[in-house]
Amino acid sequence: MGNWKIGYIDGLSDIGSTYELGMEAYHGFGAKTLNLDPTKMCRASGMIVTTYPPDRLECSMIKNYPNVSNTVETQSFENNEFDNGFVRMLSGAEKDKVYKVTNTTDSILTISGSIGDVTVGDAFEVVTGACTFEFPTGRNPTRQDFKRMVANYPLRYPYYGGGIVIPKGWQPDDFMIRSHLTDVRDADRLEVMLNHILDYKGFDGLYSIGKLNDNPNGFAPMIIETGSHYAQYQHLGNVVDYNITRSARKSDNFFDVSIHFEGYNTPIYRGL
User: Fold this and answer.
1) Residue 62 maps to which CATH number?
2) Does 140 lie in the same domain as 123?
3) Nearest to 52 by CA among 99, 110, 121, 123
4) How many whole angstroms separate alpha carbon 53 and alpha carbon 266?
5) Omega within 30 of 0 (cis) for the link into 66
6) pLDDT 10s digits, 24-78
7) Domains of the chain: total
8) Whether residue 268 sits in one domain with residue 183
9) Beta bridge partner(s), residue 234
């Protein structure tokens, strides 16, 4: 039995991609399998200690967790760890500005474009671009479907002697998955992943055009992959809400997980 995975399509965060290319990558879903990006979801924060115009930021006070090596918090980046990811400024003149990362060393982030008014002492966070979370062995979720329903009221329009009824808005098929995790590192990585909303360029979908949650091109859907090594089932959806709760029923590191997806469509791909 294969492990469940949640992630974005492979290559979504490649430098130079466009919204059109990102949308095209999902085209044909249902008739073909989509390859998930193998990158792990990572996040780090810190402070800018030196700027090297036009495109390099030297960082200090780094708190890197969750990280590639899946260890406790580290005080440096790993080489190439955040390539194709993005850094968001948390303070200073460029607060909420988001830059694409093109290269990562132990303390330096190289970005695409110009660093602008970023100055020494500004706080930041940096995260992976397209990535995938794989549920640990033995922790595959269970699924619960929500049926399609009318979200509002119907309107009747005259049509000869009778009439036609047009429903006003339909909710798409939703589904929820539930699981348990027994390692705080898995729970923390999954939480960061579920807050990770990308657009079709593999960029921060909430800030990619400079305004919070105002990208007219929309968000790229996540791929939810289930099944075994012999038959894969893939679904597309966006996270509506989630809950990760530490429970002491079995141990200090026992987490109840529930994730609610809004599903666009759920065709099945079977492959050997």
Assistant:
1) 2.40.30
2) no
3) 110
4) 47
5) yes
6) 888 877 777 889 999 999 999 999 999 999 999 999 999 999 999 999 999 999 9
7) 2
8) yes
9) 225
Asked if residue 53 has a cis previous peptide bond (ω within 30° of 0), the answer is no
Domain span including residue 18: 1-39+130-272
Closest CA to 99 of 80, 81, 112: 112
Note the pLDDT tens digit of each residue in 180-234.
999 999 999 999 999 999 999 999 988 887 777 678 888 999 999 887 655 678 8
**Per-residue pLDDT tens over the stretch 227-247:** 765 567 888 889 989 999 998
Is the Cβ–Cβ distance between 265 and 251 less than 8 Å? Answer: no
Structure tokens at 8: 């974005």
Residue 60's nearest CA partner among 38, 75, 82 is: 75
Give yes or no: residues 11 and 46 share one domain. no
Question: Measuring CA to CA, which residue among 60, 63, 56, 108 is closest to residue 82?
Answer: 108
Amino acid found at 34: L
* Cα-based angle 257, 5, 80 (whole degrees, multiple of 5): 110
Q: What is the pLDDT of residues 160-172, one digit of tens each?
A: 555 555 555 545 5
On whether both 79 and 55 belong to a single domain, the answer is yes
CB 134 within 8 A of CB 224: no
Q: What is the mean pLDDT of the chain?
A: 85
The secondary structure of 217-254 as a DSSP string is: T-BPPEEEEEE-SS-EEEEEEEEEEEEEEEETTT-TTE
* Position 25, amino acid: A
The predicted pLDDT at position 247 comes to: 83
CB 4 within 8 A of CB 242: no
Extract the tokens encoding 258: 């529930």
Q: Environment class of residue 62 by beta-carbon count within 10 Å: exposed (0-12), middle (13-18) or buried (19+)?
A: buried
